[in-house]
Each structure stands twice: as C-alpha cells, then as structure tokens.
Amino acid sequence: MLGLPGLLLMLSLGSVCCPPGALTALRLASRRGPPGRAQPRPAALYQTRYFPQKIDHFGFDQDLTFQQRYLVADQHWRKDNGSILFYTGNEGDITWFCNNTGFMWDVAEELNAMLIFAEHRYYGESLPFGNKSYSDSKHLNYLTSEQALADFAILIQHVKETIPGALNAPVIAIGGSYGGMLSAWFRMKYPHVVVGALAASAPIWQFEDLVPCGTFYSIVTNDFKKSGQCCSESILNSWGAINRISSTDEGLKWLSSAFHLCSPLKSKQDAAVLKAWLSETWVNLAMVNYPYKADFLQPLPAWPIQVVCKFLKNPKLPDKLLLQNVFQAVNVYYNYSGAASCLNTSQSATRNLGLTGWYYQACTEMVMPMCTDGVNDMFEPRKWNFHVFSEECFKLWKVRPRPSWIPSVYGGKNISSHSNIIFSNGGLDPWSGGGVTRNITDTLIAIVIPEGAHHLDLRASNPGDPKSVLQARALEVQYMKQWIEKSRHKH
C-alpha cells in the first residue's frame, strides 16, 4: 500500500510523500536496512517462483540479473478460455499483499483466472544486489517505477511462453495504492501486454500542482470530524499541549511516561519525532478506517476512528489530561490486542512494508507535495518546502528529487488518449484527493466508494461490507469481462 504519507507509502504505504515531521522520520527509516518479510499463506494456495530479471532494462552496460519473486495460483485457471489477473506489486513483501488482496481470490473462479502476484524490485526477497541493495545510492539507482514496470512486462512474457495455454490469455493488471499507480501506468505504457487495469486508491495526480497540497490532510481531518464530536479539535489542541510540556526536562519525562514510550524523550527534537509519529498514526487510521475488524497495518476494531474518538471528546481539557486522552486514543491503534508493553515511535505500521525503499523513491521520482495549515485540517501548520526536502534527501541518499518527472513520463492529467483503466477511490481515503474521481472518457472510468477507506474494494468480501463497495466490485468485474471478451475476438 502506497504507500502512505506516514510511511511515504503506497503506500506505502503505506505509505508517498513527506507529512509534517516526516523529514525526521526519513532519518529513522533510512537506518532500518532492507524491508521485512511476511509470513506466506499456506503453500497449497499458490506456488512461489523466481524469474531472472535484468537489473537495468534501459541500458546496455549493466548486464547483471536478480531473482524476482512471484506467486502463482491456478486453481481456477482454464487453459482454453482463461484470463490472467496480474497484481503489480508495490512497496513491500509480496506475500503480504497477496494475503490482503482477497478480491482477486474472490473473482478468480468467475473469470477463469490464473492469479499472479509479482514482487516489486528492492522489496521482500527481490533484492537486485542482495544485502548490498540498500547500501548506497549507486546500488539503489535501479529502484524506479519504470524499471518495475519493465520487470512486470518481461515477467508476463515469460509466463505466456512457459505456461501451456497462456500465450493468448488476456492479462488484467490490478493494484492498490502505489501498486494501483503502477497498474494504471502499466496499461498506459504497455497496452500490448495488459488489456486493462484496475487502479485502486491510486493517487496518480498527487504530483507538482496537479492537486492542492493541503487536500490530503483535509480529508484525514474530515474523517475524524465525522467520527466524533470535538475529535479533530482535540487532536488540533494536542500539538500546543505537547509543545508546552516538552519545553522542560521534567515535561519530557512526563510525556515519555504518559505515552508509555519504549525510548524516553530527551530533547525537543525527540518531541518533534513524537509529533510526527502521532501525525502518521492519525493518517494511518484514516487509511484503514474499515467497517469491520482488520489487521492490514495493525490489528484494529471495526470503524477504528469512531473508537479512537471516544477518548477525544473534550478539546478544552488541561494539557496533561488532554494528552492522557490522546494516549488512550493512539493505544487503540498500537495496542488493540493488548500485547504491547510500550509504544515505539519509530514504527507506525506493519514491518511488511519496505519503508527504507519507499523513502528513497520519495526522494527521487515519487515527489508528492503536501502541506497543512491548522485551519482546514487538525495538524500543525507546515508549508511544502521543496528546497528543505531536497536537502534532506541529499543528506540521506546523495540524490536530488525530480518533482516534475512523474507527470512528464506518465502524462499528468493529460491521459485521455489511454483506455481500459478503472480508477476506484474511497470517500474516506485521504489518497482519493490525488486520485481520479470522475470519468475521463468512456474507457477511463472512475468509481467512488463513499464509505470506503484505502482500497477497500481490493479486500476480501466481508459481511460488514457497505453496499457501495459491493456495487463497486460488481462493476469492476463487469468491465473486466468486457475487456476479456474484446481481447478474445482479436485472437
């Protein structure tokens, strides 16, 4: 998941851009090394395979290869008239995305589909230079969306050539968050490889000035406003309370104790990290505000923001009482299971997301401007400052971000010449602000799910699903069937 601004994720996340305080978090993430690994589903559900990919698809001097991991499930595959649903892996371990994309498993039989989940280079086990992949900018140089899309195209060619009956099978790209961006871009750049794409919660317009920089955090704030009276006001007032209490050593000790932190705060810089961590928490809650219990980023109850807001009803409390309530609120996110003995400000989501890699991508081509003003949102005012962001990126990676590259290479809002892409967005998802929420043409379709958080439509069917997501999934399958049928007529 894209991505995520708290994770630059997604998607990333979750995780795709710097939230307030994320420049500090960049430093934290850069120390963590390669992304973590997820526990796979039972082996009976899919086969794990590896394919030798070129490290550099666009140059001829570098002829090295790496093993790209991909998962194949063919229980419902029909060689005579089947299709292929291809998940465009994003910033994390592919088995984790496989586990959290139940929609593909739910529709496989109806579409006679083989499922393929392709891992994104530099994440999970698909490390081009092994343990040296994250060692410096030279080794990270091949971590780009363009290289990843080329991986997907070459992998599909390999699958079609080696699996009997697959040669003429229509392929549909599916992805969520950053993976959704990749799905859309895949159809745009390789229309001969995939007949269509489902791009769920894909903020392809969250670049340069294509959307106002404050939209994302305004949507986060509205989610909290709608979930409890005075909830967003309590969060807005908490920043001043933290600033006042953290001005003394005694206050820092109190905050460390009040928030049950694993590492005590020792400076104002540590207090800034605490605020950045809290900001990421509120953002992540907005993204995973699902109508049923789920554990996508953390184990959470149904409609978790409503549960959180029960602790944030009185924004006018004295500082310490207000912050004690804030702790109770964030404890819902970090310790709903009751297993955490302390809270870690260097982690805000599952370890299956590759934070280090995503921060590098944010510092190169995935530059998504964001800002807050403390008026239209519940966060401390923070202007988008590209110069400061660029300097931080250079300190971390010795690279400079290119803010105009993504619109240049993928077209920005000038994409009407493309076809067969569904852009789905949830009304509760802050990433919808950078997404396509209106039809562009009769083949570039926007589906909005009012009660949906981050790519709810890609999750498995659940009794708690709102009617709007059921309708969205039915419409998505309808379009996929049309693409498949049209493709068959060509052959």
Based on secondary structure, the structural category is alpha/beta
First-to-last CA distance:
35 Å
Name the strands of the widest sheet in spatial order: 2-3-5-4-6-7-8-9
Helical content (DSSP H or I, runs of 4+): 25-40%
Q: What would you call the shape?
A: globular
Low-confidence stretches: 6-41
Major sheet details: 8 strands, mixed
Please write the string of helix (H) and strand (E) elements: EHEEEHHEHHEHEHHHHHHHHHEEH
Mean pLDDT: 91
Helix count? 16
What is the radius of gyration?
22 Å
Tell me the strand percentage band. Answer: 5-15%
Number of DSSP strands? 9
In short:
The protein is an alpha/beta fold and 491 residues long. The protein is built from 16 helices and nine strands.
Main attributes of the structure:
8-stranded mixed beta sheet, globular, alpha/beta, 16 helices, 491 residues
Please give a structural write-up:
This protein is of the alpha/beta class. The chain has 16 helices and 9 strands. The protein has an 8-stranded mixed beta sheet, sandwiched between helices. Helix 6 links the parallel strand 6 and strand 7. Helix 5 crosses helix 6, helix 7 crosses helix 10 and helix 8 packs across helix 12.
Element layout with pairings:
Blueprint: E1 11-14, H1 22-30, E2 47-54, E3 65-73, E4 83-88, H2 94-99, H3 102-107, E5 113-118, H4 137-140, H5 145-162, E6 171-176, H6 178-189, E7 196-200, H7 215-227, H8 231-245, H9 249-258, H10 268-287, H11 304-309, H12 319-335, H13 355-362, H14 386-397, H15 405-410, E8 421-426, E9 444-449, H16 467-490
Parallel strand pairs: 4-5, 4-6, 6-7, 7-8, 8-9
Antiparallel strand pairs: 2-3, 3-5
Helix pairs in contact: 1-14, 5-6, 7-10, 8-12
